[in-house]
What does this fold into?
Amino acid sequence: MLSPFYPIGTPGIPWGDAEVAAWRARQQRRRSYADEVLVAVEHLRDRFDIVRYGRLDYGPDTYPLCALRSRDWQDGRPVALVTGGVHGYETSGVHGALQFAERHAADYAGRLDLMIVPCVSPWGYERIHRWNPQALDPNRSFRQGSPAPESAALMALVAPFADRVRVHIDLHETTDTDESEFRPALAARDGRPFTPGSIPDGFYLVDDTESPQPEFQAAVIRAVAEVTHIAPADARGEIIGSPVVAPGVIRYALRSLGLCAGITDARYRTTTEVYPDSPRTTPDRCNEAQAVAVCAALDYALEHGGAPGNTDGS
It folds into this structure.
């Protein structure tokens, strides 16, 4: 069965350059990265070093890429990496990271070096879209020789301290538009049939199939459950097509899929997902859930230690 109608391309035929250009022409700026993200980053200058780790040139637009780094950064101290906005449309990932930086980061001073990257994909943030201008998903592009400049720039930022990262939490959302726009667009782009799915109502986590940390994931779920509801499994015992291995937890092969959470050998890694379209939550609560998840992840990593890539707890 061919995909439902999508306004770009021919069903069953993958997009070429013309289709990508037609898709890109449909994307309109709907909010401001400069006003909503860079201003917030600048307001934190008195507490963090602001690292300009690259620039995206998507003519006529250019976007400076910014991270917040602990003011007392010290080689040899374990690092906590917090990333948001890998998918630019996932708003609470961006603002949850900024909320953590503003309200909670000081609690970890001297115990962890923090690198907080609130908006990996500013073009997508402005257009409330999952992809970059080349119709590439940055969160399937974290691999050597990445075709996505957003992904390549983040990997270059992290590379000098990757072996010190103890915990990495990557902040995401699952929205109704995943089903109404982004999954149909993906099927059209790749010339594949579109198979309708469902959107989980609530917060969940994505653990690493290749190095699972169930106690770590459970600790984050417990903390977030105090703020917002946890997504239940569907009738097949799944969330977005993956088996639920514990309440609110599924697993992906993070590195082989080119996902952001797989860019280091951190012992503790997870991807958060909130559902901002639920009638049971609000945008502010979603931001809070993301910040609480970061705190829970860092608290667990500090309490349980463990070197990057180490699975024996030493």
